[in-house]
Amino acid sequence: MLLIDLARTSAAVAADRARTAKIGHLAELLGRVGPDEAEIAIAYLSGELRQRQIGVGWRRLRDLPEPRQVATATLAQVDALLERIGSRSGPGSQAARRDLLNELFAAVTRQEQAFLKRLLTGELRQGAQGGVMVEAIAKAADVPAAEVRRALTLRGWLPAVGATALGGGVSALRAFHLEVGRPVAPMLAQSAPSVTAALEKIGGPAAIEWKLDGVRVQTHRRGDQVTVFTRALDDITSQVPEVVEAVAALPDTDLVLDGEVIALRPDGRPEPFQVTSGRVAGKIGVDALRKTVPLSVFFFDALRVGGADLLDLPDEERHAALEAAVPAEMVTPRLVTADADAGEEFFADALRRGHEGVVVKSPCTSYAAGRRGAGWVKVKPRHALDLVVLAAEWGGGRRQGRLSNLHLGALDPETGGFVMLGKTFKGLTDELLSWQTEQFLRLAEGPADDWVVMVKPELVVEIAFDGVQRSSRYPGGMALRFARVLRYRPDKRPDEADTVETVRALLP
DNA sequence: TTCCGACAGTGGGGTCGCAAT
DNA sequence: ATTGCGACCCCACTATCGGAA
């Protein structure tokens, strides 16, 4: 199959808004692709590469050669070239990558270049990714979508699952099973503003667990072999020896556990996320790192214990298996209750101990891997401040032509000026985007720019955020975590905005 | 007919490793 | 030694479609 076939299908998918139409286009193409190229076609049309990543981003895609007039590149050829690009390393590798990229882009037409560019930057923007592709695979292979989803859960890599479905149908899909050493798509949580609201959502008694502000780890053990995966299913075994040792010390030798790894201070309180994140990301000198920043692991779920798969069991049975397999100090603290007051107190206690919040879990849901089901509901405290808009950036994609990303500042009472604390684009409705674009252009000052518009600091906006963290990027040495817009405050003048002192007091 | 679950899109701050400068 | 880039850790929120109720 030719790359141009994919580029055309992608364009057709983007042109139709209805998901059924998108699925139709994708399924039609999947019906034509041969078994050798099915995996590539599924990967590219759901915005992925067969190699997952090849060290090429937006910066290396500037200054590309002129396109060809005639499309002749096959999927196999493109994939082979991307493989070569991805395998380069060491001195001179960037020049080699550039040459190979030039070779690739010189061999394809303008339409294919545009498709490849979006694919390589991870911005396919055709309104269809993995979720829609699952339906398209089901349609093309004439199998129930639930069978594809189940296999995806267990295999974790849609191109492989899709190729299997197209080649062997339901019976081939059923051959996928939980395999120790191969990661499963992790279960995700919805969110609610309070424990009471979360309990209502679940309806009835629930298990409430501390939400630790660390890194999710899925840990597999077979015999002496322990493997640790992140939420995105990357292997980080060598970076977290503490987890490997803790699981290797358990009596059970056939295990899959779900949990969180976190750096704790000597007094047991959690380090800021930055500390845990840096430690987990570190690959060089891990033995030295673990002496200064030791990691602790807390498990909250068991997918396999004693060689038995537990995915389809209800939460309370999985948790009972977890408690039997793991010592209590390695199990995330948990309270089972239907009482909202007791739940709120458990939440408050978790916060007093410095943790991020809680996750409220329905005792009867199975492990819905890879889906953000209503079985898990996270609850975190929410801070809010009134800040001043200092500038705004032009949006992209569906926000093109509107000022979208806000630069936020707190009042500095010493000078009467404002100190930038970060940016946000979240929480804005289409209506608000239009309104603020008009306002910012009216308040614009300084030279016009196609990236950012500086505005007179006159608009006050109420910003919600999860916390304040230390920053080397911003002048105040602080930045907001997960900032989002709640509403504009036309009733407030900029000199009534919250001050840098107020923000500093929120630093941990 | 209305409601709501699931998806995609739109980007945020921070950190590391690596290659180039 | 410093800088820029890519990858990945954490992530919130809105708009939309289409099946569920």
From TrEMBL:
<feature type="binding site">
    <location>
        <position position="231"/>
    </location>
    <ligand>
        <name>ATP</name>
    </ligand>
</feature>
<dbReference type="Pfam" id="PF01068">
    <property type="entry name" value="DNA_ligase_A_M"/>
</dbReference>
<dbReference type="InterPro" id="IPR050191">
    <property type="entry name" value="ATP-dep_DNA_ligase"/>
</dbReference>
<keyword id="KW-0227">DNA damage</keyword>
<comment type="function">
    <text>DNA ligase that seals nicks in double-stranded DNA during DNA replication, DNA recombination and DNA repair.</text>
</comment>
<feature type="domain" description="ATP-dependent DNA ligase family profile">
    <location>
        <begin position="288"/>
        <end position="412"/>
    </location>
</feature>
<keyword id="KW-0479">Metal-binding</keyword>
<feature type="binding site">
    <location>
        <position position="300"/>
    </location>
    <ligand>
        <name>ATP</name>
    </ligand>
</feature>
<keyword id="KW-0234">DNA repair</keyword>
<protein>
    <recommendedName>
        <fullName>Probable DNA ligase</fullName>
        <ecNumber>6.5.1.1</ecNumber>
    </recommendedName>
</protein>
<keyword id="KW-0132">Cell division</keyword>
<dbReference type="InterPro" id="IPR036599">
    <property type="entry name" value="DNA_ligase_N_sf"/>
</dbReference>
<keyword id="KW-0235">DNA replication</keyword>
<dbReference type="InterPro" id="IPR016059">
    <property type="entry name" value="DNA_ligase_ATP-dep_CS"/>
</dbReference>
<keyword id="KW-0547">Nucleotide-binding</keyword>
<dbReference type="Pfam" id="PF04675">
    <property type="entry name" value="DNA_ligase_A_N"/>
</dbReference>
<dbReference type="InterPro" id="IPR012310">
    <property type="entry name" value="DNA_ligase_ATP-dep_cent"/>
</dbReference>
<keyword id="KW-0067">ATP-binding</keyword>
<feature type="active site" description="N6-AMP-lysine intermediate">
    <location>
        <position position="211"/>
    </location>
</feature>
<dbReference type="InterPro" id="IPR000977">
    <property type="entry name" value="DNA_ligase_ATP-dep"/>
</dbReference>
<feature type="binding site">
    <location>
        <position position="378"/>
    </location>
    <ligand>
        <name>ATP</name>
    </ligand>
</feature>
<keyword id="KW-0233">DNA recombination</keyword>
<feature type="binding site">
    <location>
        <position position="260"/>
    </location>
    <ligand>
        <name>ATP</name>
    </ligand>
</feature>
<dbReference type="GO" id="GO:0003910">
    <property type="term" value="F:DNA ligase (ATP) activity"/>
</dbReference>
<feature type="binding site">
    <location>
        <position position="372"/>
    </location>
    <ligand>
        <name>ATP</name>
    </ligand>
</feature>
<dbReference type="InterPro" id="IPR012309">
    <property type="entry name" value="DNA_ligase_ATP-dep_C"/>
</dbReference>
<dbReference type="Pfam" id="PF04679">
    <property type="entry name" value="DNA_ligase_A_C"/>
</dbReference>
<keyword id="KW-0460">Magnesium</keyword>
<comment type="similarity">
    <text>Belongs to the ATP-dependent DNA ligase family.</text>
</comment>
<keyword id="KW-0436">Ligase</keyword>
<feature type="binding site">
    <location>
        <position position="216"/>
    </location>
    <ligand>
        <name>ATP</name>
    </ligand>
</feature>
<keyword id="KW-0131">Cell cycle</keyword>
<dbReference type="InterPro" id="IPR012308">
    <property type="entry name" value="DNA_ligase_ATP-dep_N"/>
</dbReference>
<dbReference type="InterPro" id="IPR022865">
    <property type="entry name" value="DNA_ligae_ATP-dep_bac/arc"/>
</dbReference>
<dbReference type="InterPro" id="IPR012340">
    <property type="entry name" value="NA-bd_OB-fold"/>
</dbReference>
<feature type="binding site">
    <location>
        <position position="209"/>
    </location>
    <ligand>
        <name>ATP</name>
    </ligand>
</feature>
